[in-house]
Amino acid sequence: MIRGCIKSLLVAAFSLGIIFFSNTCLANDDQHKKAEEKKEHFDANEVIFGHVLDGHEFHFLSYKTADGNAHHVTIPLPVILYSPQKGWSVFMSSAFHHGEHEVEGYKLVAGKIVPVDPSVKVYDVSLTRNVVQLFLVLFLLVLIMVQIAGKYKRGIGTTKAPTGLQNAVEPIIAFIRDDVGKANLGSKYEKYMPYLLTVFFFILSLNIFGLLPGSANVTGNIAVTAVLGIISGIVIVLSGNSHYWGHIFNPPNVPLGVKFILVPVEFLGIFIKPFALIIRLFANMVAGHIIIICLISLIFIFGELNPAIGYGASPISVAFTVFIYFIEILVAFLQAYIFTSLTAVFIGMAIEETHHQDGHDEGYDDAVIV
Amino acid sequence: MDLLNVILLDGVANAGGAIGAGLAAIGAGIGIGQIGKGAVESIARQPEAVNDIRTNMILTAALIEGAALFGIIVGFLAMIVGSK
Predict the structure, then answer these.
(1) ipTM exceeding 0.90, yes/no
(2) CATH fold for the domain made of B27-84
(3) How many angstroms away from the CA of B34 is the closest CA of chain A?
(4) How far apart are CA B9 and CA B13, in angstroms?
């Protein structure tokens, strides 16, 4: 009954959110009054960074009507600003009209909010599209996983084969538990499974969501991946036992001269391993998005030279883009798996018990039985 | 010596960044190609170990790709910082 209540509550929250934001989407039909100006040059840089970076609205498409006015289909998001001098300011980002208007002393410059008066210091804590997508994915994951966990608790799917959503998610959870958890962590895998499963499904869902047109590029944001990497780093460091620290600061069987070089390297390794996790996820995701946008932008870049070349380049461009899209779906799964797997490997290295020292020939039988 | 002043021209930062990223991609290509070669040969020798080999191959490929992406990010930074 409680589960039904939570589900109804989440459905209600979703519905309210959609109702309150969708009417602004339909009504948000901007008309640029600069139709008399020369045709705007296609700026690939601006398009690419506009898609890959964070923004104050969900931008789906822009089109030009016959009279030359540009219309944008967007979902504007709330802007929440705090300034020690001016206090809190809360308004919808549609008030900016894509950087034309100034609102309450702030203007939009290249996607960032800048105070008109340079002496005013402003802290931007708005609900940008990364934040909204993060919360959306969070709600979805909680909804799905709590439902499935409840089913297992009540015994559904344990004696007979599970059905529905439980059936779809169970192989993935079993895969992470067996091939990532048990393989790297041995007998102590249960303590770390919640974290590994959370990180895997979180990164996977964000990656997949980021592939939908118009969505935000959350895992391609260095701040998000940095937090994930730092949390992994903290988990690794906190689970290290004395054997692990001994190996770092006093590597065994190493001559003294080499120790002077090895100990700083090993110590730096504690920080470099999470750093590599951060950069790997961030760079893979952002590179994939940039490639897709660049391939589509080729059509427009060629179209500027000559409309005929633009039309000719379209099928090739679209074909390449579809191909890269499939690769990006693979990369979405792969990067989530790699992040989880490497975290598990590093935790496994940290919780390793003392292994037998070199020099024992246990297990080697004599070549000749005397 | 005008040849030495080439390095002070505009756009050298962009060229440097792009060339660096390209070299990093070459390194990744060679490395992952060798992993693929080793993995495929091992599968040919012992087909029942396919799953283990595939897991290790993907893991190692991701590590190498991480290193290559370091290089690409540095190239990108060179372009951005150089054009400021």
Answers:
(1) no
(2) F1FO ATP Synthase (1.20.20)
(3) 20
(4) 9
